[in-house]
Amino acid sequence: QEVINEADILVPNVLSIAQKVEQLNNITNEFYNNVKIPNSVSFPMPTNAAIVPANDIREKDIEVVQIGFLNYRNNDKVGTFNTGNRFTFDDTSKVLTVYPRYPKEEQCIIRYYTSKSKDYTTANMTETIDAPNEFQQSFVPALAAWIALTQDDIAKSSVYESQYRSVWNAASQNYGGAG
């Protein structure tokens, strides 16, 4: 609600709260598509398949799966004729499967990029922005840029877009992602 209130001060408008909440979800997706925040999880891999104990992992965000000294590549990205070490990950069940099977139980490390963990609704507007604290304030000019664009105020939209993009570009560089 705070982001919406501040954006409304910057760009007075008649848009509904629901429209702004929907755009806030789009902005959060855009943030995580541009700012690659690294994360990792470690757990024992008993056989060739295990449920990953982290709810925020999506297949498209996995960078590396390492078991023991072996790295596994995403089977969907390496092609069907790959005979090397590869993995599949089911986003729904959170099951990681590796091929070929590792010979013994070993520690598995997954390095991945953090992604959006929740959607905003008009019912949960008291929740904080789904981004690291240091970047939450950048969502105000991001929303203000969109609001200005809906009112055909290209100049104002460009100013606010420049503000939040410079923060996101710096964040991307700080995290080492390709923003």
Structure description:
A hairpin with a 2-residue loop joins strand 3 (62-67) and strand 4. Helices cover 39% and strands 22% of the residues. The chain has helices spanning 2-10, 17-34, 75-78, 133-136, 139-150, 154-175, and strands at residues 38-45, 49-51, 62-67, 70-74, 86-89, 95-99, 106-113. The protein has 6 helices and 7 strands. The protein is elongated and about 65 Å long. The longest helix is centred in the C-terminal third of the chain and has 22 residues, at 154-175. The two termini are 27 Å apart. Strands 1-7-3-4-5-6-2 form a 7-stranded mixed β-sheet.
How widely separated are the two ends? 27 Å
Helix and strand sequence: HHEEEEHEEEHHH
Mean pLDDT: 88
Largest sheet: 7 strands, mixed
Q: How many helices does DSSP assign? A: 6
The shape is elongated
Assign a percent range to the helix content: 25-40%
**Uncertain stretches:** none
* Main structural class: alpha+beta
Strand arrangement, major sheet: 1-7-3-4-5-6-2
**What oligomeric state is this?**
single chain
What is the count of β-strands?
7
Strand residue percentage: 15-25%
The radius of gyration is: 20 Å
Question: What is this structure's SSE topology?
Answer:
Layout: H1 2-10, H2 17-34, E1 38-45, E2 49-51, E3 62-67, E4 70-74, H3 75-78, E5 86-89, E6 95-99, E7 106-113, H4 133-136, H5 139-150, H6 154-175
Parallel strand pairs: 4-5
Antiparallel strand pairs: 1-7, 2-6, 3-4, 3-7, 5-6
